[in-house]
């Protein structure tokens, strides 16, 4: 539950910082899973999606227990789906383990909440920072977000096996980069607006430091990390990028706050331009919108668009969907995006007309590989 806290810039107030209890990342890290699960009073219960279970189950059985089974699901993370999965959990279970992508992690969080149990995250992709946070998204059957719920505490452990993540689809990693790089701009915007973080408290200065570190790491290492994935050989750049996408990004948003970049995902999920795009691809576009609303100069916009292109991310609606944006698209995206709760983390008041103007302005720009733009 968010804490009640009041402050001004001149009055100290409650500062709150949260994080997972343990974070382990490295080649062969899955070997530590038995030790992590033995810390709890009862046996572990494993949640995964069908695709991951098909190839990871034999490896987990060899490492943990030959009788281990991954309890799988398929489809959206709805309240009904969580209830159905939670009904399958035996009474003696001591910890819920989520293994897979964002959906598997979110399902495990929902099941853990239903039973009042701790939860361990074992991501198999770095497509977003869900593994480290207490938040989990609820959708309807048409993949429209209906709520963001939260566990009472962050995962007790996050286990990141580099040997597993190096084999994930490159596009998923690109999406994680898009999700993570936004956290600096959003944490900074939230600080400028003197607003609350995701916990209802004042953001610690450390949150912005971590969010900035994520951004700097990605600007330095993300292109090389994607090249490592294509080779299938992890290196230092890949490890640093994974850490930025999972750990730094998660700590940055939960403790620093979200802003325009994530607000835009609400409209994109309902738009023909966002259909089929990944969360981090939506967020990358949202970063560009936020920069336009902040009045950034052409050099900054061109630099960001160039970086996004280098890591396979969109900087406009046409680069996201390959379709030409129509006036109704701008209106629809703006209207749905303005329903997001994150606009309070932006110092400037933004209404529908203002946002539509920003979207139109961004779409009118042509970015060149040389790092320049035409309007």
UniProtKB/TrEMBL annotation:
Gene name of the encoded protein: gldA
Any binding details for the cofactor?
Answer: Binds 1 zinc ion per subunit.
Catalyses which reaction? glycerol + NAD(+) = dihydroxyacetone + NADH + H(+)
Q: Where does glycerol bind?
A: 129, 179, 262, 279
Q: Detail which positions bind NAD(+).
A: 102-106, 124-127, 133, 139
Required cofactors, per record? Answer: Zn(2+)
Which residues are in the Alcohol dehydrogenase iron-type/glycerol dehydrogenase GldA domain?
Answer: 20-161
User: From the UniProt record, which GO molecular function terms apply?
Assistant: glycerol dehydrogenase (NAD+) activity; metal ion binding
- List, in alphabetical order, the GO biological process terms annotated in this UniProt record: phospholipid biosynthetic process
Name of the protein described by the UniProt record: Glycerol dehydrogenase
Do you know which InterPro entries this protein is assigned to? ADH_Fe/GldA, Glycerol_DH
What does the UniProt keyword field contain? Metal-binding, NAD, Oxidoreductase, Zinc
Reading the lineage from the top rank, the first entry is Bacteria
